[in-house]
Structure formats: structure tokens, C-alpha cells
Amino acid sequence: MPAIWDWSLAVLNYLFNAISKFGRPFSNIIIKLGFACRFMLAILRHSPTSLLRFQLTMREIWFAGVLSVLIIAVSGLFVGMVLALQGFDTLQRFGATESLGILVALSLVRELGPVVGALLFASRAGSAITAEIGLMKATEQLAAMEMMAVNPIARVVAPRFWGGVISMPLLAAMFSAMGIFGGYLIGVKLLGLDEGAFWSQMQSAVDFRQDVINGVIKSVVFGIAISLIAVFEGYDAPPTAEGVSGATTRTVVTSSLVILALDFVLTAFMFRGI
């Protein structure tokens, strides 16, 4: 009888440990999400202090936005060129090559501009923000601010958050503009389409409210998500070299997944009538 009892306890203990191991990652995710929500509320609470000293935010706009202009502009140009080449080949089969401007503009303004621009922004600026805050934590600069009665969220985190939020829509607009210009170079200058038809059909087909404004809304949402993930991962990073590198990697991976998921949700609500 004692042997059966001991065997039953061993089986129950094994099952309990297996269930605990299975559920621990989910509980850790929920805990981290709760901490991220509290962190976001703290950023919003201290934002007026940071925005009153707008030179801090302007410096972060330069760091996150202006320094990302080159990669955004070059990438947008080549994406537009490739899109025009691929679109021309497809439209030519249906005798609708004059609609190339519509294809390029709608694809960029609605989808590729905000999404690809956000992915590039997360890879360049988001990772840099995480690494910067993580290194400040590892070198105890944040702890030194707290000892001097300077709130690190108001002084360090909030300006970087708002710098990213403000920069992202502008970069997405630049990406779309450069992509349309690249489509113009390929369609009109290389493939010989009529320049007037290219621009006139584009202007008649692209609706400001339905297409442009929705693209801007997407880019703003992506900017908020990327900036929050970047500053949170940097602030939450373990104060070691390995911890900072891991936080930087998590920023890029998490931001990319969140961007794609949010893009699906926003597209469903904006363009499917849900």
C-alpha cells in the first residue's frame, strides 16, 4: 500500500511539474504585458514634462528620424522600381498598362509605405533606442539620475518615445513618395508609358481620406508600437552586455511581428468594412 501511495505521489508531482513548465511561459508573457501597460501609463504621465522641454524630443527626432532618412529613401526608391517592373508585366497581360500609376500609388500608400517603412524603422531606430537605454542602465546612469532626483522616464524614456512616434509617419510618407518616384522612373522613363496618363490616373484613383489618411493612421499606430517596444525592452534589459544584446534582438523581432499583426487588423477594419 505505501508503495502504491508513493507511486501516485510521484505521478502527481510529475504532472504538476509538467503543467507548471507548460504554463510558465504564458504567465511570464502576461506579467510582462502588464508591466508594459504600466510602463506606458508612466510614459504618458511624464510626457508633459518632457514635451515642455521640447529640445529633448527634437534631439530624439533627429536621432530616430533624420538619421533614418537615407535607408528609408533608398529602400522606397527601389521598392517602387521593382513594383513598377512587376506590375507592368502583370498589367500588360490584360492590356491595362496605363493603370501602372494606380497600382504603384495604392500599393505604396495603403500598404507597403507604412509596413516596410515601419520594419526598416524598427530595425534601424528601434534597435538603436533599445541599445542606448540598455547601456545607460548597464552603466548605472539611470540609477544615478534617480539618486539626483531626476526621473529617468521623464528625462530619457519619454523623449525617445515621442521622437519615434513623430518620426514614423514622416518616414512612411517619404518611403511612399520615393516609391512613387521610382515607379515613375521605370514606367515613364524606362518603359515609355505616357506621363500624363500615369499621373492623371493616379490622382483620380487615390482617395485622400480612404487611402492617404488610412495610411497615415497605420504609420502612427506602428510608430507607437515600435517606440513603446524599443524603450520598454531597453529599460527592462538586464544590466549586462548579453542582456542588452538580447533586448536589442527582442526589439527587432517583437516589433516586426507586432507590425504585421497590427497591419492585418487595421487593414481589416479600414478596407473591408468590418
UniProtKB/TrEMBL annotation:
Source superkingdom: Bacteria
Keywords from the UniProt entry: Cell inner membrane, Cell membrane, Membrane, Transmembrane, Transmembrane helix, Transport
GO cellular component: ATP-binding cassette (ABC) transporter complex
Record membrane topology: Multi-pass membrane protein
Main location: membrane
Cross-referenced Pfam families: MlaE
Gene Ontology molecular functions: phospholipid transporter activity
Spans through the membrane: 61-88, 168-191, 212-232, 252-271
Compartments, as annotated in UniProt: Cell inner membrane
Function summary: Part of the ABC transporter complex MlaFEDB, which is involved in a phospholipid transport pathway that maintains lipid asymmetry in the outer membrane by retrograde trafficking of phospholipids from the outer membrane to the inner membrane. Probably responsible for the translocation of the substrate across the membrane.
NCBIfam families hit by this protein: MlaE family lipid ABC transporter permease subunit, perm_MlaE_1
Quaternary structure note: The complex is composed of two ATP-binding proteins (MlaF), two transmembrane proteins (MlaE), two cytoplasmic solute-binding proteins (MlaB) and six periplasmic solute-binding proteins (MlaD).
Family: Belongs to the MlaE permease family.
Record protein name field: Intermembrane phospholipid transport system permease protein MlaE
